[in-house]
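Lecture 7 notes: from sequence to structure.

We start with a single chain of 452 residues. Read the sequence below before looking at the structure.
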Amino acid sequence: MKTTKQQSRRHFLRGAGVALALPWMESLPIFLMPSPAQDGREAATGAGRPPLRFAHIYFSNGVEPAHWWAKGEGASMEFGPAAQPLAPIREDLIFLRGLYHQKAFSSTSPHLGRMNLLSGAPVSLDPKDIRVGATFDQVLARHIGGRSAVPCLALGIEPNELRLEDGLSMIYGSSISWTSPVKPATKEIYPSRTFDLLVGDGKGRDLDRSILDAVNKEAHSLRPKVSTGDRRKLDEYLESIRDIEKRIDHASREERLEGWRPTLKEPNMQRPADEIPQNVPEHMKLMLDLIVLAFQMDKTRVITLMLNNDLSQMNFRFLDGVRGALHLDLTHNGKAPDLEAMYLKTNQFHVQQFTYLVRRLKEIDEGGSSLLDNSILMFASSLFDGDAHSADQLPIVLAGGAGGALRTGRVLDYLDKGDDNRRACSLFLSIMDLMGVQLDRFGDSSKQLAGL
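Now the structure, written as C-alpha cells:
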C-alpha cells in the first residue's frame, strides 16, 4: 500500500548550520518522514528496516599469488600468509577466486589498461581519448543516491597524479570511480573535508567550531527520553564523532612527513587549515572511520576508497622490516626473496585495513542487526600478480550480510567454470541486484554470478 509518509526511527540533532543524523535507536518513537515523492529520498529499504550500503576498498598492484589463498568454511576457514589478517572476520566474508575482466586480460597496457576494475569496460589506449567506462558504484548512485544526502563518496589517500605512464594519463591510475566513461569521480583525500561534507547541511559552518557544541543542547534534552541502552548508544556515537574531530585537529597540526621529503624544510606560504595527515596509517584509519560514520549517519550508501593509486609511490617503511622502497618497487620485485618478504607485509597491511572496517561495522547495532549485516563490502585490486601484471583473475573479498541475502563464511572458486561463468561484472550485477538495482547487462556480462 502506497502512502504519502513513511516511518523511521532515525532522528536528527540540529544546530547552527548542522543537521546531524543519529544512529538507529529502538526506544525513540516512530515518526513520519516525507516520502520519496516529497523530498526525493527514502529513509530505509522497507518499513522499519535499515538500508543497505555498499563500499569498495581498493588496494593497488595486486598480491603475491603464492601467499593469497583461502580454504575451508566458517570457523575452520584457513588463509595464506597475505590473507591471514582476514582470520578474525572469517565468518563474515566470502573469499572469491577466479573472477576476471576480459578487457583487462587482453589489454596491451600492463598497468593502466587494467584500471577498469569497477566497469569491466575497455580502457582507451589513445592518449587523446581518456575513456574507461562508467563504474557500477556510480550506477548505484544514479539509482539510489537520491535516498541519502550525499549520493556517493569517492575517497582516497594519495592525490591524483598528472604525469604520463607509457604515454597514458595517470588519471587512470588515480581513479577507481568514474561518473561517465570519460569523467572520473572527484576523489577526496582530506579527512576534514569529508567530515564537513557528512555532518553539514549545506549551509556551512566555521571550521574551528565543534559540531557537537552546535548540537549539544538538543542532545542533552534527548537523553532522558531514550532507554538506558539507547542512552549508552547515543553517548558512544557522539563520543566517536568527538574522537574523529580530535584526530583531525591533531593531524592538521602534525608537521612530520612520511615517505617523502619536500624541497623546503619549512613552508614558504601560510599553512592551509585542516591539513591531511602525513602519517599513512593514521590517514587510512581516519578515512575508514569516516566510512563508518557516513554509513551510521546514513549520509551516503555508496563509497569507494583507494588505499593507494595504481603505480603507487607510497613508501611503506612505517612497517617493521620494510626498508626504503616504494610500493611500486616492492610489487615489481622479480621474485627477489627480500623484496618479496616486504611485499607480503604490504599485502597484510592492506588486508588489516579492510578487517578493521569490517569489525567496526559489526560493532554497531541497528535494532537487532549490525551495520555490517546491512552492508556489502568489497576488497579488491585491479591486478592479481603485481610482479607479472597478471589479470587472469582478481583478488576479491566480500564481507557483510546484505540484509540477510548473503551467506558468508565461504570460499567460492570460479577458476574451472569457464570464461562466461567467471566474469567480475556478473558479481557487480549481483551486487546491484541486492541493492535494488536490476540491470539486464553491465560491462561484459548479462547474467548474475552463480552460487553467490
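Residues 1-6, 31-45, 255-273 have pLDDT under 50 and may be disordered. Keep this in mind for problem set 3.
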